Amino acid sequence: MMTLEEKKAGLKDKGILLTIQRSAILEFLQGNTHHPTADEIYQSLRGIYPALSRATVYNTLDLFKRHGLVHEVTIERNKAHYDYNTEPHHHFFCRHCGGIYDVGMEGVSLERGGWLDGHKIEEAQLYISGTCSACLRGEDNAGTP
Questions:
Q1: What's the rounded Cα separation, in Å, for the pair 17 and 4?
Q2: Do 72 and 116 lie in a common domain?
Q3: pTM of the prediction?
Q4: CATH of the domain at 22
Q5: What's the number of domains the chain is made of?
Q6: Is the pLDDT of residue 104 over 60?
Q7: Torsion of CA 76, 79, 84, 90, to 10 degrees
């Protein structure tokens, strides 16, 4: 996976100005494995960068996406999430909590009722959805299978 410094250098090499806002968004994504939405990024950074606008966040994410610095993950209709990890990998979506997790697929059978990194598979298409391990622990505590 490209380091933060490599991604920043790549922007500069392409003649793209690395503004404070762009740098902050890239750094936020680099430290975030929860695949945030543009609005979540905006809400998290606006207290630190009062001049930051939603439009800047959306435009910056589009710029990063076009240059291969982030991936857009669209599992939920009309709700894009952003992933700093641009290496080939798969995602697991929890139908209960809405969490999106990176998962490995080596030796995995995508059968309904199967398991993947502790998550229960309920359906598999181009993405995998089911119940995450944290929600399963909560269900177990509540006595629900």
A1: 15
A2: no
A3: 0.78
A4: 1.10.10.10
A5: 2
A6: yes
A7: 10
